[in-house]
């Protein structure tokens, strides 16, 4: 058996990663155009990974980017369930544990569907 041949699942995972990377790049460009400063991209922490941490006007936004080629499986933001929200909230606490910043914290979702981008400001709140 040829070890270089990829399974269908491996090909799909690689394609999903490319879609995600393109979506994150588009989201970062969008935020910069809107006046945000990107503080972190793909910030890893004990709770997982935060796609983008950006700041503007005294607000630090923790941004989950959901990219899809189509909406066949629903809106991309629908994939940001309670468990993902909890991870982002815990990640924010971790991020500020060793930083002194006077700011408002917000949790946003940016949906990227093909060439369409939808920024959902304050998509969820910390409890």
What does this molecule look like?
The protein has one domain: Trna Endonuclease, Chain: A, domain 1, CATH 3.40.1350.10. The protein is globular, with a radius of gyration of 16 Å. The longest helix is centred in the first third of the chain and has 26 residues. The protein has 2 helices and 5 strands. The model has no long low-confidence stretch (mean pLDDT 86). The protein is an alpha+beta fold and 127 residues long. A hairpin with a 2-residue loop joins strand 1 and strand 2.
Question: Keywords, please?
Answer:
alpha+beta; 2 helices; Trna Endonuclease, Chain: A, domain 1
Rg from alpha-carbon coordinates? 16 Å
- The assigned structural class equals alpha+beta
- Percentage of residues in DSSP E strands: 35-45%
Strand line-up across the major sheet: 1-2-3-4-5
CATH C-level class is Alpha Beta
Q: How many β-strand stretches?
A: 5
Q: Number of domains in the coordinates? A: 1
CATH architecture: 3-Layer(aba) Sandwich
Secondary structure tally, helices: 2
Helix-strand string: HEEEHEE
Task: Report the average pLDDT across residues.
Answer: 86
Q: Helicity range of the residues?
A: 25-40%
- Give the CA-CA distance, first to last residue: 52 Å
Enumerate the spans where pLDDT stays under 50 for 5 or more consecutive residues.
none
The best one-word shape is globular
CATH-assigned fold name: Trna Endonuclease, Chain: A, domain 1
- Main pleated-sheet profile: 5 strands, mixed
